[in-house]
Amino acid sequence: IKYVFWALAGITALIGIFTFLTALVAGEFGGALVGLIITILGPVLIRIYCELMIILFKIHETLVEIKNK
């Protein structure tokens, strides 16, 4: 899951930077703002998602241990 996080965070950051620069060249302030938001919030949201996945796997592992007792 760590590799998935880093891959998705990198892709999201690149998309955000691309959106930001494209909007700046086009002269759109709103698009540039969206690009900044994607660059900052994208990796944070992906981190939260990955942490939730880790929690689910740990819950599953604990339930399997309880079942095997």
Sum this structure up briefly.
The chain has 69 residues and is an all-alpha fold.
Radius of gyration: 18 Å
Which quaternary structure do these chains form?
single chain
- Total helix count? 2
Helical residue percent band: over 70%
Largest sheet: none
Instruction: Please state the structural category.
Output: mainly alpha
**Proportion of residues in extended strands:** under 5%
Low-confidence stretches: none
Q: pLDDT average, as an integer?
A: 94
Order of helices and strands: HH
Measured distance between first and last alpha carbons:
28 Å
Shape: rod-shaped
Number of strands: 0
Strand-helix topology:
Elements: H1 2-26, H2 29-68
Helix pairs in contact: 1-2
Give an account of the 3D structure:
- The chain is mainly α.
- The chain is 94% helix and 0% strand.
- The chain has 2 helices and no strands.
- The chain has helices at 2-26, 29-68.
- Helix 1 (2-26) packs antiparallel against helix 2.
Question: What brief labels describe this structure?
Answer:
single chain, 69 residues
